[in-house]
């Protein structure tokens, strides 16, 4: 958890010789910061979630039991794993579960998606798990979305990881021409619309 300069100033104002109005404003800042931790599990909307993984939905979505016993759904940023019904979808889920279930993680929250999930980069023991899923052949680097939020050096590392996994025929790359999950979802939507 990172403490902001504003929160540090609020502590000094609260216990200093300031006016009653200054002390009330300082108290409000501190109460807001604490409430944000307990009720959302994140710091300021974007930020950090820390907690234990209590669920693995698929190869790129987990549930983290954050501070205050708040369950937080997290969709992995920068990658897209096969859907559960796709070839290698269950293998991606099993691999992610073996790596994370029951473990303490840190999630750098980047944004909220249209389903209200936190989208972030997941870390366990200083390992970028998003990148590890790509390295092991259990996910694609989702380049079209990664371009807007991923640093150039990380973008390159993820691209290289996918390239290496393809060359070594790891995971989903055992298939000659695996269907990307975004194409799979699109074909399901088109089928449902007919």
Please count the helical segments: 7
CATH architecture annotation of the largest domain: Beta Barrel
Radius of gyration, taken over Cα atoms and rounded to an integer in Å: 20 Å
Helix content: 40-55%
CATH class of the largest domain: Mainly Beta
Number of domains: 2
Which sequence of strands runs across the widest sheet? 1-2-3-6-5
- Stated plainly, the CATH topology of the largest domain is called OB fold (Dihydrolipoamide Acetyltransferase, E2P)
Number of strands: 8
- CA-to-CA gap between the ends? 49 Å
**Please, what is the average pLDDT?**
86
Query: Overall 3D geometry?
Result: elongated
Order of helices and strands: HHEEEEHEEEHEHHH
Structural class: alpha+beta
Low-confidence stretches: 38-45
What is the percentage of strand-forming residues?
A: 15-25%
Main beta-sheet annotation: 5 strands, mixed, barrel
């Amino acid at each position: 958890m990172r403490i902001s300069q504003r929160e540090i100033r609020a502590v000094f104002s609260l216990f200093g010789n300031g006016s009653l109005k200054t002390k009330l404003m300082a108290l409000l800042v501190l109460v807001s910061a604490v409430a944000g931790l307990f009720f959302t599990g994140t710091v300021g909307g974007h930020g950090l979630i820390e907690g234990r993984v209590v669920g693995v939905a698929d190869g790129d979505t987990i549930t983290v039991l954050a501070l205050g016993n708040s369950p937080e759904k997290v969709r992995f940023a920068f990658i897209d794993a096969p859907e559960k019904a796709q070839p290698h979808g269950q293998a991606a889920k099993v691999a992610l579960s073996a790596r994370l279930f029951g473990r303490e993680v840190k999630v750098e929250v980047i944004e909220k998606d249209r389903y209200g999930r936190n989208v972030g980069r997941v870390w366990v023991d200083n390992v970028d798990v998003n990148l590890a899923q790509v390295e092991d052949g259990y996910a694609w680097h989702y380049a079209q979305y990664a371009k807007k939020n991923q640093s150039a050096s990380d973008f390159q590392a993820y691209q290289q990881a996918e390239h290496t996994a393809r060359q070594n025929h790891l995971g989903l790359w055992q298939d000659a021409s695996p269907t990307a999950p975004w194409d799979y979802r699109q074909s399901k939507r088109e089928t449902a619309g007919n």
